[in-house]
Each structure stands twice: as C-alpha cells, then as structure tokens.
Records
---
Amino acid sequence: MTYKVGVTDYVEEPHAIEREALGNDWEIVWLNAHEETDFDADRLADLDALLVWHAPITERVAKMLKKCRIVVRYGVGFDEIDVAALEAQGIAFCNTPDYGTEEVADTTVAMILMHLRRIAEYDYQCRNYTEGWQEHTLAPLERSRDRTLGVVGVGRIGSAVMRRMRPFGVCLVGYDPNVPSGHEKALDYQRATSLHSLLSQADIVTVHCPADASTTGMIDESFIAAMKPGSILVNTARGALINSLDVIEDGLRSGRLLAAALDVLPSEPPTDHPLIDAWRRAEPWLRGRFTITPHTAYYSERAWREMRYKAAETARLFFDAGIERNRIRGEDNRDRIL
C-alpha cells in the first residue's frame, strides 16, 4: 500500500531526507502553502499524513483533511496548530521536540560566556585605543565562579545548559513548576520557589520555556525590575516571551541589564524600533552589550537533517507500528518541556 504525505512549506523538494525516512511506500506531495488560503482542498483531501513547517493548520484546514490520520510538526512549538480541530477530525498531532537540543544549549552558553567576560565590548572598545592597551579593563568584571546562573525552564535545553555551565563553577538556580520534586537533586541545582526568587538571585538569567498563556510577555517591566542591577539576559527560546523590546531597551539604558542576547524576537525579521536602530548603527552606549542572532540557535547541518528525518519517521511509525511518538492532545495547550 502506498501512502501519500504532504509537506506544507519551507522544506522544498526534492525531500531526499524525508524519502529516506519514509521508504518506498510513500509518495511526497509538495504543497508550497504558507497561509490558510494557500491550501487546495482537493490536494489536502487525498493525503494520509501532513508534515508542517510554519503554515497554520486551522479548523478550516483540518476539515479539508478527509483521509489524513496524522499531522506532524517539523519542530517543537505548535502555536499555529489547532490541535482540538485535528482531534475533532480524528487526526493525531505530533511534534518533533528532540532535535537541536545541543545546538541551542551551545548557543546559549556561548552568549552567556561572551557577555559574562564582556568579550564583545572589548572587541568594540579596543578598536579605538590610541594609547595603551592592556590597561584598558572593563568594570565590573567578576570571576565567573562567583556568579549565579538562573535558568527559567529546566527541561531538555535548560538542563543541557546547566550541565555545560557547571564546569565554570557558577552557582546554578532553576525555576520550573512543571518538573517534579527531586529534579533539582538529580541535576544538582538549587530550586527557586518562584520566578521572582530566581530573578533576585541570578546574575545571568536564561529562559527556556514555551510561549503559552502563562509565559507570553513574561519578560516585562516587572521581570527586568526584579533582576539584579548589572544582570545579563539571554533568550534562545521564544520571541513571544518578550513583552516588548521597550523593556529590553529600558533595561540596557538604565544599567539594570549589563547585556542582553536574543536569538528570538517578538517580531521576525525585526521591525523598526529604537533599540534595533541603535544596534544596527552600533551606537556607543550599546556596543557589545546587545547581541542578536537570526533565530538560528537550533541550526547545524546535523540538527537540520535530524529534525526532518524524525518528523517523517514519526509519520511512518504511526502507520507501520501504531506508535504515536510525541503526540500532543487537545488538552495540552503548550509544549511543556524545552
């Protein structure tokens, strides 16, 4: 029997990685659909499975999937997927959470160390030295092992960040209401009883939580105000966690934030904003204190392949063995572990 799987968007033909994972019993259909209105009802009606990148799977789209039994997301988040609508049609939904963990953790640690040691600032400052050299030290600059790292969200990636940072001797504090009691003993970190408690202790704060009703916009004025003066903020998780770039700018201008590093932004690509403009112009007050990478913390050639292979493999396992790998059900309103 031959099954037919659609690929919505972004991952273009020839789909060699997906073909390798699926085997010879599958036909792959490139839909090239980026918006709800791009989908063709007849093409969707003929699919047995659907692989999704960024295209929204709304109730209207779900009702077009007449034969489809499983939808798989390339990646972790499913903000654009109406899981309840899929379930109403008898369609399972699964995501692909277990790729790129090493890459995101490595990027996070690189950002932390760069700003902890103020490397980017030194790079900018020393370009203009006309007298002297080694005596131009930046302050404050404390020993790494005397600093406290606060990890908000101690799932796969947050835990991987902790393991990488432990050899540097930093004190590790974590906050995550969704991990069980004793998790901190297994990973050997101090468990904060509240977000505010973590923020008040940490010299560096890195966030690794999904964007849901409780976390969207969490990095706001009160979040920054609760941080220690001269703290470092890192976000490689979700842009929606940031209430507004205004709060990041205010924190950097006031000195509450020594530095901020973001792989994700509230709007991507970034729209016009005074902070973005200052970053692009490398204004003196901001030089080396604000780092942006273009939502690529997840990426390496191996992670890219792993994500695509596992997404397609999830569809195949569903049909071959009845395995619902990483299934998300309608009552799950978010991805609980990053």
---
Amino acid sequence: MLDTYEALREYREMRLQSVLYGHKELHALHDRLITRTFRLARRQVAKEQGDPPAPFAFYLMGSAGRGEQSVWSDQDHGILFSGEDHLQGYFLRLGEEVSRGLEVVGYDRCEGEVMASNPLWCQSTVRFKEQIRSWLEAEDWQTLRHFTIFFDSRVLHGDPVLLGEVKAHAFSQLQKAPHLYKRLYENMEFMKKGTGVFGQLLTEQTGEGKGKINVKETVYFPYVNALRILALCEGIYPPSTLERFRALLSYYPSLSEYEDDFRKLLEYRIQWGRDADHYENVHLISPSILDKEEKQLLKRWMKHGKQLVSETRHHIRGGG
C-alpha cells in the first residue's frame, strides 16, 4: 500500500529504471508520484482542519508543468482557490504539507521557493489576476520571470477551470501591451555558449559541473524559451513544448525543422542523466561518455537552438 511518503519513495526507486526508455513513460511516473503525494497531504490536512473550504486547483510549473522532467526533478507547484482571501491559511498549510511530502518522496524543494507553501504561489484567483497585472506593469526581470514560470503550468488535481480563467486574464493583459512580447524575449535572449570558436564543445569551468557540459542551459533552454514566447504571442494554452510545436505550426511552418530535434533531445537527455544521483547534476554530462555521433547531435541541437531563438526575435519584431 502506497499510503505513506516513505512508501512512495521506495516505489519511485523501484520503478524508476523501468521507465528510462522514453520521456512519456518517465513523465507518467512523475505525475503518478506527485498525485499520490498530494492526496496523502490533502488527507493529512483534512484530519487537522477539515476538508478544503473552497474549490481549488493544485498546479505544476517548470519542467513538471511542461511534462519534461528528467530522472530527477525539483518542486515547482502552486494552488489557486476561489473565494475570500481569509481562506489562504488553509491552502498554505496544504501547500506546506505537499512540499514536505514531495521532499520525502525524492523531489528537492525549489531554491526559488516556487511552491504552494509560498503565499506568492498560493492565492485566490482574484488576487492572482491582480498579481499578474502587477507583474506585467512592473516589467522588470524578476516579475517577468515569475510570469513566464507561471505560464508553463497545468492542473494536476482540482478544478482546471480556475487555472484557465487566470491564463485567459494573462492573455488579455498582454494584448493591451504588445510591447511586452519584446521585453519577454529580452529576458530569455541570453544563451550560454555551448561550442567554442573551433566548434569544440564547451564545458563548465568551475563548481560541481567543472569539466562537464550543461545540457539544460546550452541545449534545452533555447527550444523551451523560444516556443514559450511564440505561444504567448499566439494565445496557445498548453504548457508542453511539443504541444506548442504542433499548435504553432500553422502560424510558423518553419518550426517543423526543429520539432524532431527537440523530441530526440528529450529522449537522449534521459539516457545521459540516468546515472545521476541527485537533482543538481542530472543536467551535467561528461564529454567522455559521448560517442562521436552524440557529440555531433549536441552541436547540431545547439546550432539549431540558436537559429530558433533568432527566428523568434524576427517574428516578434515583425509582429508575428
């Protein structure tokens, strides 16, 4: 019986190796673990304070929101609820219990506190709409980063209408200020270089990743960030990068050149990270484990990612 956080952790460790042949299977396992953890947390809080006092939505963000976790994943989640602000205390307690439970199961707490235990990510729909408006009006790096984090969200448990309502509000705010698309692009424009002037793969120079390639920053992020910006421009709701590719093809036919690259990247990323022992190094790979073909693939994806970001800039400047 998977009726404790510790039992779920054992289940994760037992099942993990069997799903490392495809990102869909790994994604399904993560969803199953997080859902069961949430239900245990909800049961615990109900014992203390009774059932939830209002309809709510527990939602995931980041790689979990996009359905693109690797072998290890940290926590990125929030809670939206309908009703008055005084109900927030109940849902913050629920958020803290979920965060505690997920940590036991094997998901590191988010260093940036993007969790339902943080009042910033646990609010009524009315307050969250106001927060989105203030984020976009501020237009600074941190608030726009919060906005993009939220946009990669999906409901795992509860009422999906609540999240849809808030996202619709976000799109309406963007339409009132089209210059924000350019500001959002500027926030993601910087890309860590993956290759040197002679075409060699560049590795980290300091820290735990010294001598290793950061696949997340040099290869993965350009695709994710570019598709997010284009989805914002066209009012595309799904958070999955692959779903965004499909939804955006009618607007930008050239995206077909990049979709297959990204699909393969998701699969290879799992294989390269399968031996990682914790979240911090799952995206770091040593060049020594790569054969000639894999190194060429990395260089190709880096080049195409840079091209995709450049095309995205052109689309934004050209108004779509």
---
Amino acid sequence: MTDPVRLRGIELRYALTLYLFQHGRCTVKELIDGLRWQGFEFSGRPSKAVSDALRWETKIGRVYRRGRGLYGPASMPRSTEYRIHQRVLSLRERASEAHCRSEAGKSGVGSDGLAGL
C-alpha cells in the first residue's frame, strides 16, 4: 500500500491558496477536510501546518485573515495563479495515482489477473 501525498512547504501553501481561490472564504477545518478529500495528508498537526502556511501567504498578500481560523482569497497575478494551478494539478494527479495503487491491492485479484480460480 502506498502512502498518500504529504503536503508541506510550498506545496501546502499552493494547495491551500488555490483551494481558497476556488471555494472562497473557509475555516481551517474546511481547508483540512477539503485537501484530505483530494487525497492529501499533512505532516504533524494539520491545523498548525495550515495556519503556518497561510501566515506566509497572508504576508505575501494572496490570502487575508478574516478572524480566528477564517481565511479568504485576496489577489494574485494571473501568471502566478497559472503557475500555482499547474503545480497543484500535478500534485492531485500524484495523489490520485497513489490512491489507485492502494485500491488495486485490495481487489482480491492475483497477479495473473484471476480472482481465486
């Protein structure tokens, strides 16, 4: 069984920023649930990883903080948005492939393609 794609650093920041731009204002819990649904995992405590990553994005000006644990999209140049979107698409593809490989081992079909014959 393969591990899910673990997000950290710039990959986590990009995935969170893109999620906010696609879904609008979200809580930290909604962000965690949304990224887990896409097949991603976090290193350490997810809420801390998310808030630390969004603190960086807030300083850059791509994300704004609306209150405790509530963030929303700010502004971003089109070229940056394109670059982030492409990177997150490749991460989602990796997560999807990891999920498919882990599900393939659960089917009960042997390496010869026959199910227990």
---
Amino acid sequence: MINEYEELLAGLDDVEWASLSHAYESAHDVPGHIRTLCGSDDEARKGLSRK
C-alpha cells in the first residue's frame, strides 16, 4: 500500500521533525507513524491508535 502513497509522502523526510514537538514529546516519530498508517500492516495501524 505504501507505493500508493509515494507521491503524498514525498518530502516527508525533508522536515526537521526532531525540532518540532507534539503533545507528548519531540515529533521525531511522526514520519514513522505516517508511514505505518499508510502501510499494509493492520496490527501496526491498530497499535498506533492505542498509544
């Protein structure tokens, strides 16, 4: 499924995520979460909703 989102995810790694923050901490983990949400692993996506 990730291939379907390649264009959408282009430039994702160009952002300095570690210099940003979200409600819990540094936003360094955001690209991984986005990729997980776009991936084909149902269990991994469900795991994100439990965090």
